[in-house]
Write a structure and sequence with these properties.
The protein has about 300 residues and is α/β, with parallel strands linked by helices. Helix 1 packs across helix 3 and helix 9 packs antiparallel against helix 11. The protein folds into two domains: about 110 residues, ATPase, nucleotide binding domain (Nucleotidyltransferase, domain 5, 2-Layer Sandwich); about 150 residues, 2-Layer Sandwich (Nucleotidyltransferase, domain 5), CATH 3.30.420. It is built from twelve helices and eleven strands. The relative contact order is 0.17.
Amino acid sequence: MNSMDKVGAIDIGTNSTRLLVAMVGGGRVETLRRLMQITRLGQGIGNGCLLPEAVDRTVRVLREYRSVLDHEGVDLAVVAATSAVRDAVNREQFVQTVRAETGLEVTVLNGEEEAVLGFRGVLAGLTLAPDDTIVVDVGGGSTELVWTDEKEPHFYSLDVGAVRMTEENADDRRIRALLMPVLGKLECVQASSLVGVGGTVTSLAAMAQRMVSYNPELVHGYRLSYDTVSRLLAEIRSKTPDELRQTPGLQPERADIIEAGVSIVATVMDGLGRGHLIVSETDILYGLALTVAGDVERKTPPVDGL
């Protein structure tokens, strides 16, 4: 039997900052603790600069997460930042601030690394054939599409995310114009499973089930139909901001960006001609956990620098 390592993984996203503490071994990730806080690091993302108040919010949460890692006795930990940080002109300043304030070393992922790690995380949590799966990760700052062909990774990373599109006041037409040139290139991909990850997708699964209290076990593996996504998008648009914040299954802090996020999901499903999407709770955090434990299976490609 393979030994298990206790590892920590932190994902600094455009909208949220998340922590996973898990036991990893033999290709398995056993969750011990998961935490998430909306930090909106990508506030003002179109300006290309991380705002001081957004940095402060994020560093405050990272300080809390560092305490959790210490309390849990985690020796192996990885901290990764995605779209908002990689696009920022002051990214190095952010990395240095986090190091000085928390002692954590941040790795800034490029689009390919983010895509591959998300794909790896999905395969850790769902029994799917790698060559028969497309993963779409709808984040705050970007959307990644990744699949493999004879174990060769293929991916697209697009600056189309829920926070970014909200701040740009992008409507369906604009989102479709940004996504369709890439989605059209995936018509020849024969993969039968489309898997979605990210806060928008998991929120959709929770909203579809009208969850008053979020239950990850009921979200993970949920089959979300295109008809349900379209219905929920119409409901979102029919509500006032106050009504939206009270919607079962939707975090109030996510209410202002959910419309753009759902529009992205609907466009991807329509553009790929998919009637259903499988929701995955295992995502980039799990890919990071596998990587830091040095327990990456050969069926997924390596990620440089991790």
